[in-house]
Amino acid sequence: MSDPKVSVRPPHVAVIGEGDPRGPDAHRILEWAEEVGQILARSGVTVVTGGLGGVMRAASHGAVAAGGMTIGILPGADASEANDYVRQAIPTGLGVARNLVVVTSADSVLAIGGRHGTLSEIGLALRMGRHVVTLASWRLESEHRLGGPRVHRARDPREAAAMALRLAQAGPEQVS
Amino acid sequence: MSDPKVSVRPPHVAVIGEGDPRGPDAHRILEWAEEVGQILARSGVTVVTGGLGGVMRAASHGAVAAGGMTIGILPGADASEANDYVRQAIPTGLGVARNLVVVTSADSVLAIGGRHGTLSEIGLALRMGRHVVTLASWRLESEHRLGGPRVHRARDPREAAAMALRLAQAGPEQVS
Amino acid sequence: MSDPKVSVRPPHVAVIGEGDPRGPDAHRILEWAEEVGQILARSGVTVVTGGLGGVMRAASHGAVAAGGMTIGILPGADASEANDYVRQAIPTGLGVARNLVVVTSADSVLAIGGRHGTLSEIGLALRMGRHVVTLASWRLESEHRLGGPRVHRARDPREAAAMALRLAQAGPEQVS
Amino acid sequence: MSDPKVSVRPPHVAVIGEGDPRGPDAHRILEWAEEVGQILARSGVTVVTGGLGGVMRAASHGAVAAGGMTIGILPGADASEANDYVRQAIPTGLGVARNLVVVTSADSVLAIGGRHGTLSEIGLALRMGRHVVTLASWRLESEHRLGGPRVHRARDPREAAAMALRLAQAGPEQVS
After folding, report:
1. Closest A-chain CA to D38
2. How distant is the Cα of B8 from the closest Cα of chain A, in angstroms?
3. What is the DSSP string of A39-52?
4. pLDDT digits (tens, 9 = 90+) for D31-69
5. What residues of D are in the A interface, CB distance below 8 Å?
6. Angle at CA A45, nearest 5°, toward A40 and A51?
7. Torsional sign, CA B34, B39, B43, B48
8. What is the DSSP letter of B38?
9. Distances A21 to A28, A63, A97, A118 between C-alpha atoms, Å
10. How big is the B-D interface in CB pairs under 8 Å?
């Protein structure tokens, strides 16, 4: 029997955003998520999402179309809640607390648009030492003092994916 | 035996912020946290915190000094980690995921200063339908679109406490 | 101002069991839970439960009737889900994962009857180093090897409450 | 571009047990775990574990040696904690609460030996509607009343794997 050790794990990037984007830029947001998923998958990245609709589905779609691996960390207890482009469904039963798992299971995080759930994931990602790339997403500024330069704004999907890949390869920072 | 039903539960406000504030305004941040705790307790509010040091300790100190009730939702498994001003210690064993419990156990949330943990709590609070009052804390702006007017900036501890009390009495919003 | 430090925290005992006991011994189970709550409260113990119905409600009822403090660690996000005898409601938003918080927030655990949720809480309590007293509840035996003598069977509510109090005062064991 | 939809997801079986088995039967336990992993992988099952040592490592080893997929749901925040036979590492940052994710992400659960952590996973699995196969593991009996016939004792690895596969294909039960 050949040595079965898993030699190298590919970098994981979490793509986060709304499950049901609305408004004038909803279409663009979804196109961007799909493009980001494609570029990441072509670079050998495993795309992690929350496994549901909207940005999660579009990013997974792009990644699977490019032959990539996709993981969906679901809030509920039923794998069938995952969208059709999730290869590995991880039902957690945790509800909103699954947001922590989405970002902790990734080496870097890429936010596209997004509302409050996305904001919570950005905060949790930073708390867990992950770098966050934002694309048409939240701008964060502390009146008090910034906690460090780990939020990176991108202008388009290509730049966002490239930044997220580079930051994933560099890996998370140690946090206490 | 008299009817033992618990007739009215007092409003709960979570006061969140750094466990170890540093820099030029650290002293002011702690003074504000203590003052906020005092004002809230005098209004009959139960003050919820993460139970550790810094802002959590100062807010609990202020509340207990005013004769109020304080709850500390701890990340670890040991009640003795709570600061000296926590009346009800709730060790959770959840690590960072306890941040969700801190904000969900409150009717409104008041952030004073704060870094990444505080940002994650603000995001989780909004996700759970809680209103958030900020005092020298994060400014949040969405490039995409704002998720609603549930973040309220206060200028001083008195205003912050009054806003948090009013919003706690109004209660959380229903979120899906 | 007098020194506001919280000098002594009372021992916490978690009383766990079914939210909706059925069958021929359901009535007895609920009577036992209420009696256990009363005895614990008279001894100065804070009674922690999952905050819902059945055994949780009966134990809280007994404790409040004896003038005691009761804490309810709720699975949902809404304090109004707590039964009428919970003094401090802690909505967690964690779903089933709140079971970990119920037992970790206690110094010892007392199981009365119970089904799968109770079994999960017994396992989690042992994992977190808590001693568990059982009353008409699960019998646990390892085919492999027992993990230690931290499960204690009681014959009646009086013995169960006395054992839980003594074990709570001794405190949890350190676990890795 | 061919239709990228993920057509069929393979059944997931969680193999649970001690991270550091000791005593006279430790060697046998690890051999059984490895054999179970091999049989499951040959049947096309994805093997889920807690990603660490002992039974988790042995089951993953067996599965990977047979060319199978392995997922490791880690308690910490660092993918490098996973053993060498985990193909998909999911760091959760949840500590002991990750036990819920291990069993919820599986269609059925197979316990080999095990101590308190394993007992908590058995309880959580039953609570989440999963069937549990036990091999030299906990015997569970309720003094009150059994919650249903969802615990299945196997005599050897071959029988255990066959039962777990069949139960995974049947799928979890609906629980409230």
Report:
1. A4
2. 28
3. HHHHTTPEEEE-SS
4. 999 999 999 999 999 999 999 999 999 999 999 999 999
5. 1, 4-6, 9, 12, 46, 61, 64-65, 69-71, 73, 77-79, 84-94, 97, 100-101, 104-105, 107, 128-129, 172
6. 85
7. negative
8. H
9. 10, 20, 21, 12
10. 13
Total residues found in chain C within this entry: 176
CB contact under 8 A, A104 and D84: no
pLDDT at A5 over 90: no
Strands A88-91 and D46-49: unpaired
Is the pLDDT at C74 greater than 50? The verdict is: yes
pLDDT digits (tens, 9 = 90+) for C121-159: 999 999 999 999 999 998 887 655 444 568 899 999 999
Tell me the chain C residues in contact with residue B100 when contact means C-beta distances shorter than 8 Å.
92-94
In this prediction, residue C104 carries a pLDDT of 98
Neighbours of chain D (3+ CB pairs under 8 A): A, B, C
Q: Which residues share a beta bridge with B140?
A: A140
Strands in chain B per DSSP E: 12-16, 46-49, 70-74, 88-91, 108-112, 131-135, 138-142, 151-153
Which residue in A96, A116, A144 is closest to B114 by CB distance? A144
Residue among A56, A66, A134, A63 nearest A99 (CA)? A56
Burial degree of A155 (CB within 10 A; 0-12, 13-18, 19+): exposed
**For position B80, what pLDDT does the model report?**
94
Tens of pLDDT along chain B (176 residues) come to 456 888 778 999 999 999 999 888 999 999 999 999 999 999 999 999 999 999 999 999 999 999 999 999 999 999 999 999 999 999 999 999 999 999 999 999 999 999 999 999 999 999 999 999 999 998 887 655 444 568 899 999 999 999 999 999 998 887 76
Residue type, B17: G
**CA dihedral of residues D38, D43, D48, D53 (deg, nearest 10):** 0
Bridge-based pairing state of the strands B88-91 and B70-74: parallel
Nearest to C65 among B1, B9, B104 (CB): B1
User: Do strands A138-142 and B138-142 pair parallel, antiparallel, or not at all (unpaired)?
Assistant: antiparallel
Handedness of CA D63, D121, A106, D7 (dihedral sign): positive
Distance of CA C37 to the CA centre of its chain: 9
Q: Is D150 in contact with D131 (CB distance < 8 Å)?
A: yes
How far apart CA B36 and CA B162 sit, in angstroms, is: 9
Interface test with A, best of C74, C96, C116 (most A CBs within 10 A): C96
Please say whether the beta carbons of C116 and C94 come within 8 A.
no
Write the Ramachandran bin of C101: left for phi over 0, alpha for psi from -120 to 50, otherwise beta: alpha
Chain D residues whose beta carbon lies within 8 Å of the beta carbon of residue B94: 94-95, 97
Cα gap C74→D84, rounded to integer Å: 39
Q: Determine whether the interchain pair B96/A137 forms a contact, defined as Cβ–Cβ distance below 8 Å.
A: no
DSSP A15: E
Do you know the residue count of chain A? 176
